[in-house]
Design a protein that fits this description.
With 455 residues, the chain is α/β, with parallel strands linked by helices. It folds into 2 domains: 200 residues, 3-Layer(aba) Sandwich (Rossmann fold), CATH 3.40.50; 154 residues, P-loop containing nucleotide triphosphate hydrolases (Rossmann fold), CATH 3.40.50. The chain is built from 19 helices and 14 strands. The strands form 2 sheets. Strands 3-4-2-5-6-1-7 form a 7-stranded parallel beta sheet, with helices on both faces. It has a 7-stranded parallel beta sheet with strand order 10-11-9-12-13-8-14, with helices on both faces. Strand 3, helix 6 and strand 4 form a beta-alpha-beta unit. The structure holds adenosine monophosphate.
Length: 455
């Protein structure tokens, strides 16, 4: 608590933090809260799970009072994050500020009724803009503007919407922008809409001592079977499984349930009340495995996630970092497990280009092959239909697969290895620090040999 006191919190807020079990500030909190409380504009490089909500909440809960008009606006990329941020600010504040989460997909009339005397609005850009156009929301008296998960907001196509919203805010305000990655676009945007901002970044994406990252390189036909094997073997705690598409999410959920594993889906194709119900079930431990897409899982604060699985590898290290941020949160331990088949090589190569990520190979265990019901999830590319003699179950012709593999090898600057070369390389790698993905993470010299021999 002493460290929180030094950051400048009032006694009321300190007692809330104590009740919440916060013992000491996280890195971003330590660096940015004094600036935020002093009314400074901030450009924060930090990921979900870093404790950034308390940073931007601090001037809201300390410096704003009940006034019956909107004084602070927090923009978030997703509905779930809007709800979550609203809950956090409600919990942190002792002043009975009226706080409202505003997002699409739900009745707008109910929002309009509440908006006229709300003090803090947390919303997604589309619905906020909708209210502005209807004149059911006024930003004239905004004192604090927060852009949360800015990179994701822009990835989702909200750049112009966010600009239009900012243009309706007064020029004199405090602006705080948070983003897991600060690209040149975000930097340009931040410079344009902040005033004399202080840039604050945390040193690491994740606490490497708490989060273990591994990958299995599996034959295409055993990808799902390995997932089932690992889920059954280590059936402790809450687990998230990531897929790249809604269809894959549905397919995996159905097949996991079929294999006796209690799993539920969360993706953008489900309506809001269904998504909330699934999350509640997950929170209440009624289901152990949540299978999701990136957008749906973005920013969700689910406590106690012990492992995340990448069943489909995300397209770049930015999405990868967001996914692994679901586990090993707030000082807890976690594991990120990547299950690679041939279709993931290209994405994995891109992820490994980020040298700050340390992902070590793990030996493929002996597993039982699980029968997949190819009718689930209405997919064609996961094992049903359209297969010709030369195709595998992903619909990729064999020569295309080897082309794919050699293309990412080339891309990451490795020469194409023959089988013998490959084995020799692995047996001779005591002194080597890089593997074929450009990873610095070699640890177990026996691990890979068995995997690569199999091909
Ligand atoms: P955030 O990155 O703000 O979404 O926070 C992620 C999670 O960490 C939330 O569940 C917070 O309640 C929790 N948290 C934030 N700050 C601290 C802290 N200083 N100590 C312990 N837990 C924290």
């Amino acid at each position: 608590m002493e460290q929180f006191e030094k950051l400048g919190f009032s006694r009321e807020v300190l007692s809330v933090l104590k009740t919440a079990g916060f013992e000491k500030p996280t890195e971003i909190q330590e660096k940015a809260i004094p600036l935020a409380l002093a009314g400074k504009d901030i450009i924060g490089g930090s990921f979900t799970g870093s404790g950034k909500t308390l940073v931007f909440a601090s001037p809201i809960i300390e410096n704003l009072n009940q006034k019956n008009y909107v004084q602070a606006l927090v923009l978030t990329p997703t509905r779930e994050l809007a709800e979550q941020v609203a809950d956090s600010i409600r919990n942190f504040s002792k002043k009975n500020l009226k706080i409202l989460a505003v997002y699409g997909g739900v009745d707008i009339e109910a929002q309009i009724r509440k908006l006229h005397n709300t003090e803090i609005v947390i919303g997604t850009p589309g619905r906020i803009l909708d209210h502005l156009k209807r004149r059911t929301l006024s930003l004239d008296k905004i004192k604090i503007l927060v852009l949360d998960e800015c990179d994701r907001m822009f990835d989702m196509g909200f750049y112009r919407d966010v600009e239009m919203i900012i243009q309706q805010c007064p020029k004199k305000r405090q602006t705080m922008l948070f983003s897991a990655t600060i690209s040149s676009d975000i930097d340009y945007f931040a410079q344009k809409y902040t005033d004399d901002a202080v840039e604050v970044s945390v040193n690491s994406y994740v606490d490497a001592s708490k989060l273990k990252q591994v990958y299995y390189d599996v034959p295409d036909s055993l990808k799902f079977s390995l997932l089932v094997h690992l889920l059954k073997k280590e059936n402790a705690g809450l687990v998230m499984v990531f897929c790249n598409t809604r269809r894959n999410v549905d397919f995996i959920v159905e097949n996991l349930n079929n294999a006796g594993i209690s799993a539920k889906a969360i993706h953008g194709g489900l309506n809001q009340s269904r998504r909330i119900r699934v999350l509640e079930d997950f929170h209440d431990n009624k289901v152990g495995v949540l299978v999701c897409t990136d957008v749906a899982a973005r920013g969700l604060d689910i406590k106690g996630v012990t492992r995340i699985y990448n069943y489909d590898l995300p397209k770049d290290s930015k999405d990868y970092i967001h996914r692994i941020g679901r586990t090993a949160r707030a000082g807890e331990e976690g594991e990120a497990i990547n299950i690679l088949a041939s279709r993931d090589y290209e994405n994995f190569g891109k992820i490994m280009n980020n040298k700050s990520l340390l992902i070590t190979p793990k030996e493929m265990p002996l597993i039982e092959q699980i029968k997949i019901n190819i009718g689930f999830g209405k997919r064609r590319d996961l094992g049903r239909g359209r297969r010709t003699g030369n195709d595998n179950r992903f619909g990729i012709k064999r020569n295309q697969r080897s082309q794919k593999r050699s293309s990412w090898k080339k891309r990451i600057g490795e020469r194409k290895l023959g089988r013998n070369d490959s084995q020799k390389r692995y047996s001779d790698r005591n002194n080597r620090r890089t593997n074929r993905f450009g990873s610095r993470g070699y640890s177990n010299r026996n691990n890979n040999r068995s995997n690569f021999r199999r091909r």
